[in-house]
Amino acid sequence: MGTTTAELTVVNSSCVQLVWSEPEIPNGVVNGYQFECTDQSIGSLSALPTEEILICGYFAYTRVSCEITAWNDHDASDKLTAAVYTSCGEPTLPRSFRFSSPSKVTFDGRIRWRFYLYWTYPEKLGCGSITSYELRYTSGSNSSTVKDLGTSRNHYMYVNSGEEVVVSVRARNNGWFYSDYVSLTLTSAKLEPDWGSTAAVSETLNSSCVIVSWNEPEFPHDVITGYQIKCTGSSTWTPLPVSQLAYTTCGYEPYDAVDCQIKAASSQGVSASLSNPTARTSCGAEVPSNSSSTMSTSSTSWYYLYADGNVEVTLWVRAINSGGFYSQPSTLTITTGSISPQWGSSTAVLTAESSSCATLSWSEPEYPNGYVFSYQHKCSGSSTWTTVTTNTSSVQVCGFTGYTTISCSIAAINYQGIGNSITSSSTRTYCSEPTPPRSVTFTASTVSTRNGRNTQAYTIRWSHKCTAKSDWTKIDGTKLSAVACGYVGYQDVSCDMRAVSSRGQGDEKSSPTAKTLCSASTEPRSINFGYPSVITNNDYKILRYTVTWQAPYTLHCDSISWYETRFPTPPLT
Length: 573
Hints:
The radius of gyration is 59 Å and the shape is elongated. It starts with 5 loop residues before the first strand and ends in a 23-residue tail after the last strand. It has no helices and 49 strands. With about 575 residues, the chain is mainly β.
């Protein structure tokens, strides 16, 4: 009497539906059906118009298998079997949610209690697998914080001092169904004070003392009852009242490095040490407080000291090593000698007035170094210094040629001598009439003869100063040479010549170019010297000057071979 088919279909996460058809060969009247499903008791059904039944009471994602038979008055049919999984649903709670005893650790910049949380899989997954666990915790009135832990089944929980934290965990399966939360409460004990971001400050007081100051710990965890401090050179902790947030430690040598450690105390214990930045006591000798003092650094063991005359100068020197540490200072006091006037930033101006004269004017020296009672000046084309009295600030200078660029040097004089000279601005004199042409030296070539005798005369003219209309100078026809003068040293000279007879003048002939002999150059220009420095020579202090000058305008030869200087020997007694 076999049946045709039987089928199980999923209704939801807890129910399935069993559907079958009546026997293909009933062999009479089918009296009813009998079925048995997983975890269900045997059930019987009388014949119905529709052969189906809803079977419930299963957990999500549970495999359900059913067998069904039909019977008549004679016998029961063979069994038909069908199986199916219920759909995914919520998993059961994670099991064995526990924590281990907490330990004190530093986390995120402060001391906290660390709890180790752990749990096991839910008894029933509600789908194919557990894909993640979600942790939620709340502390006091704070809002909940949720963390996705992935598939990990443990977690470190950091709890502040004296807090009560409710921690919950739930599972999520691959069908994205969540279990309910399973919870526990973590209660932490109070901790000793924690400095957190609080810092100490160090300050040098003098050559034997340092001041250390601080603020209350960022996380006191309870009422602070006092402080303790221990500094360099001490082996014991000094107790301090809670109101004292600064401490002066003394008894050190000049420029000693001083370190201190501070602890805060409460009813819960004593904090870790807070260290101050290293401070140094001051040097034994202080830096001079002169408001005009100047600080300079040098990698050498010498230094040029520049000072005015008749002043007392104190030099303060200390060494700094590669570690940034300073030595004790050494001092030297000297009194500078008297020196002549120095122009400094003062200037002189030369203004042309005619083709031969100009006015030289100046301002008083910036550093007279005493009473200036006269000045001396020297201008272009002159090697002599001219003195003028101090009750004037200008003087007329003459003797120049027209349209010539000129400048003057001027120096001031006090009772210590002649000061440095400065050069005025340059100017150009007005135009004037030119000077006459100058003569040249040459050797005439042989004059051609006519009818066996010399021509009666020939003339010359000179090239670089003469113009096309210049006159010819006549020379006796019996002479074969002439002397031309008036040139400067080492100058190129050439001459034109021609022969003249009773029949007229011959062609012009140019001589080869010749140079005059070398002569003295013009004087060196712009002689000057800078500010003096005091040096020691054979245990005497003298002033040292750097003298400079410029090459002459005109060399009157190939080049300048050397310069010769002459100056009086300074008195050393």
